[in-house]
Amino acid sequence: MNDKVLTEQGQRCLQALLRVWFDFERDLGQVSIVQRLEQGRLSLEDYRQLLLNMRQQVIEGSRWISRCASSFDRDYADVRSEVLRHAVDEHKDYEMLEHDYVTAGGVLSNIQDASRNIGSEALHGFLMYRASQHNPTDLIGAMWIIEGLGNKMAANWAQRIDESFGETPNHTSFMKYHGENDETHLEKLYELIDRVCQTDTQCELIIRTASVVARLYILQLEEVDRAETA
Question: What is the pLDDT of residues 96-111, one digit of tens each?
């Protein structure tokens, strides 16, 4: 965690976000495909399906982040600048995911042409809606969940996948990258929380958005197995 001392309001918001994260992590462990991954029972086809279903959320990520940045007025110019930098960092991540899919035996056109599953549709729709609101500071809560997943889970998942299928060829570059780099993004989020969380209302909106995104992200992963059998 950032060594910077947060304001009292920022600390309360951060503590509430941590509670949302703990609930999210608990629910994540109940998702079938995540259980198979963490227990070393994931098949290579399972892994390809996971990547295929994650791609749409990843490819749309820079879109809602960019929309979010454009919705801030000049009173939040510093927040807008930070969010734009985040969008630049994320906007080609899908290429790593496509590489991993092909390296794991998938056909590039299959992942590129795949439709969003129900959870991805809901997640994308909610994020674009919130990003279009005036000064959407609550989307810090969305970034908290998504970046937290990369920081806290991606490296472990990559290791387990490598243990199951071998590290050569490298088909976990997307997860490894996020395991290494999302900590920096979280550090920036600590600063943004302190910057925008000035009132109880602002804090409550951030927490609510984090909670909604956590639930929709779970739905997205639950739909991986359903999409495969549909």
Answer: 999 999 999 999 999 9
Domains in the chain and their CATH numbers?
Answer: 8-229 (1.20.910.10)
* Residues near 72 by beta carbon (within 8 Å), at least 6 away in sequence: 79, 80, 83, 135, 136
Amino acid 230: pLDDT: 45
pLDDT above 70: residue 182: no
Among 114, 81, 117, CA closest to 220: 117
Cis peptide preceding 136, ω within 30 of 0? no
**0.85 cut: is pTM over it?**
yes
CA distance 153 to 192: 22
8 A C-beta contact, residue 114 and residue 55: yes
CA-to-CA dists, residue 100 to 37, 52, 165, 226, angstroms: 16, 10, 13, 22
Angstrom distance (rounded) from CA 179 to CA 148: 10
